């Protein structure tokens, strides 16, 4: 029993069917009254790779019943990857859509996120009887396996993406340890006591009054109204075209520092204030809903809660349980190291075989005190498309000393400017250019040039960032497997190139070792016998804020 296909039915039941590795059935379909119990029993007996439409929908039921599975194949996530590779990014990815494509029928739209419908209706349409659902799952999976077999690296990519879905569900279930008391104390310290009746917190109101006074006090100026702020500056003889911080910082007026402080504290109050605390933190845990592959490069997103934008000051509220600790680990200089491994540039790879990549590259920029900073500017400019001012001179040094690395991203930029697709090492593919972009490329000369450069910057970075996302997913899958063998430690947070593990204090050293082992395994699986190091900076702390 290598794989088992799963179809959810009504009333907690469903259908399962064993499959061979290529997706062909290896046994009859079996209808069960309790699908969660059936999955739990089969997992204990043989830990197959589960084939189901959506981990995000089924895993919460499993976890609530204490059932954790080792492996799965998420049909929706894999369909997205295959569609993207075929240049059809964003097309419907449900089993119903994939089934329709197989049969040459009209493809239905995917259900809206968060739509409250039954599992059967959302996956297959109301007309599909339970007995037919499993056949659709089996057929779609078999077609995906045929597609995966034709694409280099795709088997690892789809396995890692599916493992990421399991991690995401498990992290939501476990929750990030969060002290509501500390959060409230931090807000009170910065904003004043919690207000009532929709009023501003005391500190914000004090700043709002000072802003009005700074503009002469002839009338109230609402700092939350860009139009009123612009009007006030214009009345002072200092017209501004925006109230963004970078614009205000260039204005010499006594209201500016007060307004900047107001904007920062208001942002905290709005995004992570008491309302956020009431909504998202319960029983000492923050449980965001992660969206695997929610960004085109493969990075994750979240549905509400702002988990990937936790303000640094509020990290003091992320506190380990008594007797437990937080192991915080992030990959140092991940994207430059990924470029070094991708490009096959021997000189660049040799530099990346050391701890601090920028220091190792500094020699290319002469014997000067700021050589490391110059190396950093040049490398980031190469990856992100910087090409003005000093960056131009620094890039010429990089081009001369590390020609293969520079050509790797330049080639991706040229492909983007031609409207072509580019891919990560494992095959994750960028979206095709829009019809609007193509229209811009045949517009006036300046407009066309801007559109071409913009697309080139996107594809230049995509090949690096998407491969970094691939590496991080493989790291997650490897670390998850290692933590499962330890028992209590659990992944509780993931952001781009950073992971947080909540573990008993006595297992902290073991977790740190597992993180480093997982990083080495991820590098080996993606890049083979590369000289490039992928070091993980780790910290064992009681509070997330102490990690950096």
Low-confidence stretches: 116-132
How can the largest sheet be summarized? 5 strands, mixed
What gap, in angstroms, lies between the N and C termini? 46 Å
Beta-strand content bin: 5-15%
Number of contiguous helices: 22
Average the pLDDT over all residues and give the rounded result: 91
Helix content, binned percent: 40-55%
Q: What is the strand tally? A: 14
Secondary-structure-derived class: alpha+beta
Taking all Cα atoms into account, the compactness measure Rg is 26 Å
Summarize the structure.
It contains 22 helices and 14 strands. The protein is α+β, with helices and mostly antiparallel strands.
General description of the model:
With 548 residues, the protein is an alpha+beta fold. It has 4 domains: 3-151; 180-277, Taq DNA Polymerase, Chain T, domain 4 (Up-down Bundle), CATH 1.20.1060; 294-311 and 318-334 and 469-546, Alpha-Beta Plaits; 335-468, DNA polymerase, domain 1 (Orthogonal Bundle). It is built from 22 helices and 14 strands. The protein has helices spanning 35-46, 55-64, 75-85, 95-103, 119-124, 130-149, 154-174, 180-191, 202-214, 226-235, 245-248, 255-272, 274-280, 334-343, 346-351, 357-361, 371-384, 390-401, 403-417, 435-440, 445-486, 508-527; strands spanning 3-8, 14-19, 30-32, 49-52, 71-74, 176-177, 281-282, 285-286, 290-291, 301-302, 324-331, 490-495, 498-504, 536-541. The strands form 4 sheets. Strands 3-2-1-4-5 form a 5-stranded mixed beta sheet. It is globular and about 80 Å long. 43% of the residues are buried. The model is unreliable at 116-132 (pLDDT under 50).
